Batch of 4 targets.
Target 1
Amino acid sequence: MGITMHADKEILNHVAPSPHKEPPKEITFRAWRRDDISILARLGQELYHYIDTIDPVWRTSPHAGDNLRAHLDELYTKRYAITYVACAPQAIIGFITGTIILRPPVILPLRDGLIDNAFVTSSWRDKGIGTRLAHMMLAWFRDQGVDEVRIHYQVSNTRAVAFWERIGFRSWTMQAHLWLYPEKTKKAL
C-alpha cells in the first residue's frame, strides 16, 4: 500500500531552513550534471533494494538500474524536471528528483510538482542532508510557479513517513494493493 503526500501553496510559501541539523560542512549541494546519471542510477538501485527489504508488495525490476538511467537521461533534457545532488568530498551521497506534471483539465491546479525519488546513503542519514535536498526541491518548484507538490512512498517505510511529515507534507490519497494471483511469490515474478 502506498500513500500520496501533498504540500500545498501555503507550505511552499513558507519553506524555510530546517530547525534540525545542518549538514556537515564538507557536504556540497548542486544541480545535477549529465555525467552524474550513472551514479544516480546506482543510488536509485540502493533505494529500491532498501524498499524491497521493508515492503512485501514492492518488486524491483531486474533491469531497474538501466531503466532508471534511461529515465534520468530523458529527464535531463527536459525543462520541467531537475535533480539536486549532495556530494561528499569524493562521492555523490544523495539526490532528489522532481518533475512538473500536467494534470487532467478537470483537476486544479492544472500542474503540480512530483518528487520522483529522494535518497541519501545510509552512512550519511540523519545529518540534515535529506532535509536540505527537500528544501532545495521545494524552492525550485516554487520558482517554477508550482502551487502543490506530491510524493509517493510505501507506508511500510516509516522513516519516509516521519521525514516527509516533518517537511510539511500531509496524507492526501492512499493506494491499495491486491494480489490477483497470491500463489505467485515475489521471486516468481
Target 2
Amino acid sequence: MPPPAGGNSAWREARFTGACRRHWNSAAGSESIARNLIEVREPRERALLVGAPRKGSPEARDVEEHLDELARLTDTAGGVVVGRIVQFIAKPTPDLYIGHGKAEEVARRVADLGATLVIFDEELSPRQGKHLEDLLKVRVMDRAELILDIFALRARSREARLQVELAQLEYALPRLTRMWVHLSRIRGGIGLRGPGETQLETDRRRIRRKISVLKEKLAEVAGHRDRLRARTRERGVVKVALVGYTNAGKSSLLRALTGADAHVEDRLFATLDTESREVQLNGKRLRFTDTVGFIRKLPHDLVASFRATLEEAADADVIVHVVDASHPAWEDQAEVVGEALHGVLADGGREPRVLVALNKADLLGPEEVAERARAVAQRGWEAVLTSATAGPGVAQLRALSASGRHGGDVR
C-alpha cells in the first residue's frame, strides 16, 4: 500500500485506522476467542484415591463402590481423579495406615500421574497424615477432611457457616502442625478454604477460645429455632422433615411436593442450608423441611456441629426418609440414614411417624419395582414409590403426610 498524501505520519494513521476497523468488523467472531484467551481459572487438584479396608469387612466387599463415591466427592470439591489404589489390610499401621511397600507404590503413582493430592477413604490420625506427606511429597487428606471442605464450599446461611467453621476447627485442633505447613504456602485448593481457614494460623489456645464462641453463637441459633418451632406448633402446622442420603433427591422432592423453587443439582451435598415450604391440603397446613444429607463415614465433628439442624427431624410430626431407589446400593444407603436418624430421635425422646419415599422410581424396571416391594415388606416400612421429576407418587406422599394412616406396603 503506497503512502497517502500527507506523508508517513498520515500513512501510519491510515494503517492503524484500517486495522482497528478490521478488528471491530470481526469482533463478533473473535469475541469468544478473546474471552477464552484472558479467562483465568483456578487449577484443579489432581487427586489419587486410596482405599484400605480391613480384610473380610463389609467395606472390603464394597471398596470399589466406596471409591466411586469418594470420586464423586472429589468432583464436588473441584478436583479431578487421576487414579486409584486399593490395599486390603489386616489392621492399620501406626505410621502410614497402609504398609510401607504400598506407600512407596503410592509415591511412584503420584509421580507418574502428576498427582497433587492423595485422598484416603479411611480416617487418618494426625501422625499417619504427617508421615504420609513426608513420604509422598504431596498433600494428603482423608474422607472426613474432604467432606468438611465440601461443606465449607456449600454453606450459604449464617447458621451453616457457623456449623462448618466449628467442625473445621475441632477437626483441625489435633492437626495444627501439619495444617500450618499447608497454609504457609498461601494457595487455595481442596481442604484449604472455608470460614475456619484463617483460624488455623493461630495457636491452640486461640482456636479453643474461638470454638467456645462458636458454640455460644450456635446455642443462640438453637434457642431461636426453638421459639420458631413453638410458634409453628401453636399455629397447628403439621411439620414434615425430609431426610435421606445425599443426592437422593430431597430438594427435587421438596419442590415437587410444594410447587416452590428449591436449588437442585446432581452433585453430592448440593445444598446444606435447611429449606422450608408450606402448603395447604384438606384444611391442614403442612410445613415441609429439607434437611442436610447423610453419607457413610460422616465426620463425627460435623454431625455434632449440625445437631441443631438435625433437630428439625427430631421435632417433626412426620419424617419422610427419601431413598434413591435406582441406586445399586440403595439398601446400604437407607441403613446409613436409618442409623443416624435413630441416634437423633433417641436424643430427642420422640417417635414421629416415618414414611419412606422410594424416589427416582421412573428409572426402575418392573422387576426392580417388585424387588423393592419385597424388601419393603420384609422391613415393615410404610413406603411410596415416587418420582420428583416424572410426578408419580408425589400427591400420594403429600396426602399420607397429612393423614394419620399407617401401613407396611409399597403404595
Target 3
Amino acid sequence: MCWRTPPREYRSGQCDQPSPVQVAKHRAHPRESGHVGQAVELRRFGRGEVAAQLAAILGSEPSPAVAEEVFDRSGGNAYLVERSVAIGKTVRGTPERSAVLLRRGRVLEGVTLGWNVAGIVVLAVAATAARSVALAGFGLDSLIEIGASTVVLWELSGSGEGRQRRALRLIGGAFLALAVYLSVQSVLVLVTGYRPGHSVLGISWTAVTAAAMFALAAGKARTGKVLGNPVLITEGRVTLVDGILAVAVLAGLVLNAAAGWWWADPLAALVIVFYGLREAREIFLGGH
C-alpha cells in the first residue's frame, strides 16, 4: 500500500514505495526487510483506517466489534493488522471461529430455554403452596423468557437484516409484556396489601435462578458483541432483566419471611418496569 493510497484500496505489496505495512515490518523484522540500521517513521492508523484496511483484506465490512478488537491488538500498526488476519486472530475473518460462536450462542439460548421450562414447573408448585403472587408472576416472566429464547434460536438458524429486525421487534414485545405484567402485579399487591406465605422452595429456586441468569446474560452479551449480532445482545438484556427480577422476588420473599416487609417485592418490581420500558423504547424507536 503506497502512502498516498487510501486504506479502502489497500492491497499488500501494491507498490515499491515504503508503506505503513513495509515500515512496520521493518521495525518488527529489520533483517528480513533488508534495511538494518535505517531509521523510519511510522504513522499509526486510526480506528476508521484499520476498519477500511480490514474491509480491503477480507473483502467485506467487518463488524464494529471486530474492527475495535483488531485496533486494540494492533495499536493501529498496519502490518500487525495484516498479520492478525493472516494468523486467524480476527473473528469475522475466520468462518470456523464464527461457526463456533454461533454454536455457543445456540447453546446459551438452549440452556436458558430449558432452565425456564423447568422453572415454570417449580414455580407453579411453590406459588400454589405459598399462595405467592410474586412467585406466580415470576413463572409468567419465565414464559416471556422462553418466547425470547425461541426467537433468538430461530434467528441464529439463518441470517439477514429482515430476520434480525423481526426478531428484535418480537423481543421488544417481550419487554413490553414484562413491563405490563409487573405494573399490574405491583399495583395489585400494594393496593390489596396481600401477604404471601413463606416458601423455602421459592427462595431456593429464585436464588439459583438469579445466579444462572446473570451468568447466561454475560455470556450472551460477550458472544453477541463479538459476532456483531444485535438480536443476541438484546436478548441478553432480557435475560439480565430476568435475573434482576429473580433478585427482586428473592428479596421480597426473604424480607417477608424475616421481617414481614411484604411491600418490598412490588416496589422492586416497579424499578424493573422502568428498565423494561426503556429497553422496549430503544428497540422500537432506536432505529433497529
Target 4
Amino acid sequence: MAWTTPKTWASGYVVLAADLNTHLRDNLNVTAPAVMTTAGDIIYASGANTPARLAKDTNATRSLTNTGSSNIPAWAQVVLTTGVTGVLPVANGGTNASSLADKAVLITQDSSTDTVAAAVMDANGELLIGGTSGPAVATLTEGAGMTITNGDGTITLAAATADNSITVMVEAMMYG
C-alpha cells in the first residue's frame, strides 16, 4: 500500500467511508512506525512516498548494499574485488602494499613496524638468505676448488676433488 496525497476538503462535501479509508486510515498505516515490526529493521523508500521495511539479516557480518539498477538496499557480504578500496594494513591482515614486484617473495623488515617488503628474485641461482639485518637475496660464491653453475630454477655445485665426495654429499643433501 502506498501513500496517497490527502484530499483537500471543500465546504459542504459529504465525507464517505471510502474517503476516510483512502486518505486517513491507509496513510496512517503506511507511516514508518506502522511499517517497522522488529528491532533492527531499516526503513527505506521503495518509490515516491512509499516506505518499505528491510528486515535485519540474521547472518553474521553483513553490510548494507545498494547494487543493481533499482538501488533498493539489501544485506550482502562485501565483495573484495569490487567493494573494497584502499590498501589493507599489516595490522588488519594485509600487506600494506597496493602492488608487488614480479618474481618476488614477501619478507618482514626488522623495523618493529610490521612492514612487509617484496624481495625480488629474478635471476638464476638466487636464494633468500637470512642474516642479522634481515633476509636478503643473494647467490652462492665459488671458493677454491668449487664451481657453481646457476640455472633457471637450479644450482649445480661441483668440487674438484679426487673422489667427488663433496658433490655426492651436496647431492645427498639436496635430493635425499
